[in-house]
Amino acid sequence: MDKSRPAPLPVLHAIASTDRRIARQLVDGDRWTAELAGGNAMLFFLLVRFGRQPGVTVAQLNALARLPRVDLLAALGCDASASTERFLRRMAYHDLDAEAEQVLRALVRQPLPPWARHSRRPHLGLLSRVRSERRAAATHTLDAVMEHDPQARNRRGEFPGVEELAGYWGKPYVRRVIEEITETLRLVDFGGPWVRNEPGQAAICATLVQHLERCRTLEDIQRVHQRVIEVNGHLWTESSDSELENRPWPDPPIPGNDNIEPITSLAELRCESKLMHHCVATYAQRIIEGHGYVYRVHRPERATLYVGKDGMGGWCARELRGACNRQVCRETHDTVGRWLRAQPTKVAGTSAGAAP
What are the strands, taking DSSP E only, across the chain? Predict the structure, then answer.
């Protein structure tokens, strides 16, 4: 084995395919850049994205990687401070979608707020669905789970080295914990007038957040998540029964098949919401008004699909989620996509957005 050549880095597998070629050239051609990828994966990610600009060469990127980290941050247009470098170094590395990348860039282009500088779990900065006033609760809950739950407990040491880069922080279990915290806090603050105008709703929200902060395992969080759904559903049902019960339910805009079945009544929609542990029942108003429709997905996994108007007179898949708003697998996305493309009705592709 040629020991002079840098070893392949797990970080390359986590970078989007459009950036992988640049990343491979960087780590294969220069040991300083390879060390940056192993020691601060998020900073390396920003360097790779910087390399997308017209006229920027691999040699220039390798030269930037040799700079002190604070100077490199300045060259990338980020807040040039040691706290920002530490924030990025401790950040959980995983695939970044466009929304999360925007949040990351917004955080590092200005002096970091105290919650990001001092949090033991700074990767919560990527949880863009968590309102800023809820981030302290999110940090507290994740820290508690990481400390007490054997499945999530961190190994000794700081940020993983090159050999561990695809290990601990990439664990699906930790991602599930983060996703469950995000969705639970989002649902705490979710609602139409029946939630926001309810007397004492602020106290109810505060109590639910306190319950979440006392969680110590993923199962604890899921129980709070279900309680939030029950509270929202109870308030919605009380306020909507008299208004919606006697209104006609529209026909589905797209016919179903053996795998995807339209939900054709308010009672069925409530049953789906209760069975799948999410707040899709609150979509009744927009369905009755003709703005969207909900379907049960039976195979390849159980899920709920919401289609909505695309602004051009057609229909597109807006939301596709499993029980408790969990992500569905790629095969489920593909199944729904094929179903949509087979319809004569004008439709578009699927989206992974969360159902309330």
Answer: 260-262, 292-297, 303-309, 315-321, 347-348
In the numeric block, the tokens 């779990």 are attached to 121
The CA dihedral of 114, 120, 123, 126, to the nearest 10 degrees, is: -40
Q: List % helix, strand, coil for the chain (3-state, nearest 5).
A: 55, 5, 35
Q: pLDDT band for 104, please (50, 70, 90 cuts).
A: confident
Which pLDDT tens digit goes with each residue over 125-178?
666 667 778 888 988 898 888 778 877 765 443 434 444 434 444 456 777 788
More confidently predicted of 15 and 82: 82
Query: If pLDDT is split at 50, 70 and 90, which confidence band does 345 have?
Result: low
Pairing state of beta strands 303-309 and 292-297?
antiparallel
- Cα separation, 138 vs 212, in Å, equals 9
Please name which of 77, 70, 3, 12 lies closest in space to residue 45, comparing C-alpha atoms: 12
How far, in Å, CA of 219 to CA of 156, rounded?
24
Spatial CB neighbours of 111, under 8 Å, sequence gap ≥ 6: 79, 81
As given in the structure block, the two tokens for residue 38 are 């192993």
Q: What's the Cα-to-Cα distance from 222 to each of 72, 101, 127, 179, 215, rounded to whole Å?
A: 41, 27, 18, 11, 9
Check residue 302 and report its DSSP letter.
-
Q: Tell me the residue type at 28.
A: D
Beta bridge pairs of residue 226: none
